[in-house]
Amino acid sequence: MDGSCLGPPLIAGFSGFLRNNTSFYLSGFSGYIFNCSDIIYVEIFAIYRGLLLAKELDIMDLVCYSNYLYYINLINGPSLKFHVYVVLIQELKKLKDQRNTTVCQTLREGNQCADFMAKLGDLSDIALLRHASPLEELLNLLQNDAAEIYFLRL
Questions:
Q1: Dihedral (CA of 81, 87, 89, 90) sign
Q2: CA 108 remoteness from chain centre
């Protein structure tokens, strides 16, 4: 799952995709959030949409990757009473607890597919678009992920 805020003018997109344990593409989504500049909301919303998609597809065991540890800690940490997005975070926690879901961090390089699709959401004016099959432009990135290509970080 990933989110993106670009601008000016401010545009926000989110995305994610589901793969099985052999990296086979199951489904994906991307979307646009009108008049939003808060990356915290966009990233949390991307994870929320991903968990909703997993629920719709009746996926019971799920590992959710995001490249921002701050958002992962909001979801995995104790319940918050005074966060601006407390309602969305609580909904995420509820979805997470309904299934065998682990939310963990990946490096940005390991999240290239979701990053690519989030930028598609930025360029779209569609609130939510489901992708039953991977976009052609995504195929090379999916192959790289499946091959577990490593990236040197300096």
A1: positive
A2: 12
3-state helix, strand, coil in the chain (%, to 5): 40, 25, 35
Tokens of 78: 């104790």
Reported as type and span, the H/E element at residue 93 is: helix 86-98
- Predicted structure pTM score: 0.86
User: Residues 100, 61: contact at Cβ < 8 Å?
Assistant: yes
The secondary element (H helix, E strand) that includes residue 3 is strand 2-6
17: Cβ–Cβ under 8 A, 6 or more apart, which residues?
25, 26, 27, 28, 29, 113, 114, 117, 131, 134
The per-residue pLDDT for 109 is 66
Topology of domain 2-146, CATH: Nucleotidyltransferase; domain 5 (3.30.420)
- pLDDT category at 124 given cuts 50, 70, 90 is confident
pLDDT in tens, 44-74: 999 999 999 999 999 999 998 887 888 889 8
The residue ranking higher by pLDDT, 147 or 30, is 30
Asked if residue 18 lies in contact with residue 54, where contact means CB atoms within 8 angstroms, the answer is yes
